[in-house]
Amino acid sequence: MNRNHITVAAGILYLAAVDCCLADSFTFDLKATGRLEFPAWIPDRPLASPKSQAELSFPVVLGSDDDDLALTVVFQEEIGGFLSVYWESALGKRQLLAPNLFENIGILNQRTLLINRPTMGGPGKVVLKSSQAVLNVLRVRLDWARPGVVRLVDNVPNGALVTTGGKMFAPEEVDGSQITPIADSWEGRILTTSVTDQPERIEKGIEFSVAVPAKVDRVRLEVLVNGLRLDQTLTLWLNGAAVGTLALEVPDLTDPGYEKGADGAIHFTGWRKGVFILKGAQLPVGENRFQFQTPPGAQIAIRDFLLQLEYAAN
């Protein structure tokens, strides 16, 4: 099933505060040292279990409100491995929520999962399980997601998740399944179409071919990028010529993907949106070839490569 491209008119959906020890949010950094303060709804310290398939569990006590729980995990991917998520009830019964958070890109990544209230039912544990003895998890953030109002201007189904920092996820992006391509859609003369159908590594120079059947007036390119430093970008090549560099978003500072390196530099792990606008004349009728040039030595992945094409009036 393809995803929809969400457009928001106005929204009210809150996901807690930003401090790691405030009531509605908790961030656990596995590399940090020092004393941690735990909110009342995490009654015990997270438990790491050394096994052939390592586990990390977070005890959770549900509050009186009818909130869902948003789980964001920052991790190092291993090709061919998995990082699963379970909900374990107080009686020890486990329910698989996500068979594999990995997206088969082999670099640092982050994913968000929404655990709904009926699934939890009562007190229990969020359990992360690795395919190997090393967990490969860097940080975990838990947020209570309060029901709210999100007004959507198209036919996207209800159930979207909006984070404190403004990230918006379609329901199928946070249900634990593998992420699917965004469905093609029309609005007047504007077609939004997916160029890619899965995450891909691009540092070896992958070319993407797009057929344009008729004259277009404007083209907007959008792509999610993972692996770039905050001071880096991608150069867009079209039909063998460099046409410019992508404008890349800088995530909200509450995002758990941020980390201060040993050199003092700020690094970010996760998907960031890049955009570029093209004139219609730059995309002639017929086959057009797109390519992204990466910085030297960088390991870069993309997904959700979209084109919005405004076709000329007849």
Describe the structure.
This protein is mainly β and 314 residues long. It has two domains: 8-173, Sandwich (Jelly Rolls), CATH 2.60.120; 185-311, Jelly Rolls (Sandwich), CATH 2.60.120.230. Helix content is 1%, strand content 46%. The protein contains one helix and 26 strands. It has one helix spanning 117-120, and strands spanning 8-12, 25-29, 47-49, 55-60, 68-76, 83-89, 94-98, 108-115, 124-130, 137-145, 149-152, 161-162, 168-169, 185-187, 190-194, 200-201, 207-212, 216-226, 235-238, 241-245, 247-248, 258-260, 266-268, 272-279, 286-293, 301-311. The strands form seven sheets. Strands 14, 15, 16, 18, 21, 24 and 26 form a seven-stranded antiparallel sheet that branches. A five-stranded antiparallel sheet has the order 3-4-9-6-7, with no helix packed on it. Strand 19 and strand 20 form a beta hairpin. The longest helix is centred in the middle third of the chain and has 4 residues, at 117-120. It is globular, with a radius of gyration of 21 Å. It starts with 7 loop residues before the first strand and ends with a strand. Residues 6-22 have low confidence and may be disordered.
